[in-house]
Amino acid sequence: MAGNWKILKMEPCNLPQKLTIGFLKIMKDTAGANFILCCTNSKWNKPYDICKQTLITNLPKENIVKMILHETLDGKFIISAIESIMQKN
Questions:
Q1: HEC-encoded secondary structure of the chain
Q2: Which of 14, 27, 35, 50 is the most buried (most CB within 10 A)?
Q3: Are 52 and 8 in contact (CB under 8 A)?
Q4: What is the spatial distance between Cα 71 and Cα 59, in angstroms, rounded to a whole number?
Q5: Predicted local confidence at residue 2, as pLDDT
Q6: Average confidence (pLDDT) over 48-59
Q7: By C-alpha distance, which of 70, 51, 72 is closest to 62?
Q8: Is the Cβ–Cβ distance between 72 and 23 less than 8 Å?
Q9: Which residues face 83 on adjacent strands?
Q10: What is the pTM of this model?
Q11: Is the pLDDT of residue 67 over 80?
């Protein structure tokens, strides 16, 4: 993407309780970045979430990412993939 994008303050979205708990458990153990879950798509074959990512660096860097969460057979959530959608310059 070209241009000078500005990522506005984003509020977390309301999710089903099971997904919220799974997301929070994953994020508790994630180092190097903070994530705010902004919206979710769970009605397709491959559900995904759109998040605001803030990389914890000397000068924090913000991105919008697509995150794919997967629930394992034993009920634990794992991050299958994180793909950058938009990067702030």
A1: CCCCCCCCCCCCCCCCHHHHHHHHHHHHCCCCEEEEEEEEECCCCCCEEEEEEEECCCCCEEEEEEEEEEECCCCCEEEEEEEEEEECC
A2: 35
A3: no
A4: 33
A5: 47
A6: 85
A7: 51
A8: no
A9: 66
A10: 0.69
A11: yes
